[in-house]
Design a protein that fits this description.
The structure is a homodimer. Chain A has about 130 residues and is of the alpha+beta class. Chain A is built from 5 helices and 5 strands. In chain A, β1 and β2 form a beta hairpin. The structure holds zinc ion (4 copies). Chain A binds a DNA duplex (30 and 30 nucleotides) through α3.
DNA sequence: TGCCACACGTTATAGCATAACGCAATTGAT
DNA sequence: ATCAATTGCGTTATGCTATAACGTGTGGCA
């Protein structure tokens, strides 16, 4: 994976996600970028589509929202299966890459001759900070 | 978990899901039940809410759809973390309960002092039958 | 009887995502 | 240089998913 040259819109969307302290919905991103000329949802969704393709952004299926990838993308780096913890109080998200999970899921799929395309693991609950409060 | 006495609407929704050979969206369920007097989405969503609570139905977050639980509910039976395989061609869904996955995710969460409320694992791809074709 | 809890029905609205059209800029042959 | 193909962009309209808010009816129970 080379470093992709992003378009203006893609950069704006990625910046919005990078500076957010919680996942953002597409429509929230749209609102944040109205001052930069964004007017319609498709402008956001088209940028997100590419950013997802490049691995710079992740989609959180269980909350219909998006986050910037927490990993560095300077070097060629593809991560495999990722589990996300999502705090339902503060929105904090962490990415967990674990080979035990990855291999076990791979084994379970193989066992039933299932050909995996994409795996989603999302753990919703309360982060350390919020659980303490 | 005792055997819950379901209402008419809940039974209709559960039947629709039980007899389907693929996950159904709430609106698809609504259409299937129009002949039985269903007129509005809320009738479906309210039934689903209870069925999810009773563990008789699962929600597939990654495709905004619902399936009847594949396990028997005659006896008291709560399943823990479940991974779903979802065939993108035929819609076939299987439920995988695996203690290795469950314990590993529990360990990972504990490690970062995250308090888990609900875990979603969904593997999308192609089932044995469809992958062969 | 009066109260409460719960399921239900209806209308309206909110929130998430894509279809379809046309235009403009870029690229990469010929 | 020119043409064709690709890609991104902007706009309008539409479709799909989910919930808010209000009112009704029924059964259990003090
Ligand atoms: Zn990442
Ligand atoms: Zn938190
Ligand atoms: Zn189940
Ligand atoms: Zn299949």
């Amino acid at each position: 994976m080379a470093d992709h040259q992003l378009t203006r819109n893609q950069n704006l969307v990625l910046d919005a996600l990078s500076h957010a302290d919680a996942p953002l919905s597409a429509y929230t991103i749209l609102d944040k970028l109205r001052d930069h000329g964004f007017r319609a949802p498709l402008q956001v969704y088209r940028a997100l589509e590419k950013l997802l393709e490049f691995g710079l952004v992740h989609r959180l299926e269980s909350i219909n929202a998006f986050v910037a990838c927490a990993h560095r993308h300077d070097h060629a780096h593809e991560h495999g299966v990722t589990a996300f913890t999502i705090c339902e109080d503060c929105g904090n998200v962490t990415e967990l890459c674990d080979s035990v999970i990855e291999e076990r899921l791979s084994f379970l799929a193989t066992q039933q001759k299932f050909k995996t395309e994409k795996t989603t693991i999302e753990i919703r609950g309360h982060c350390q900070t919020c659980a303490a409060a």
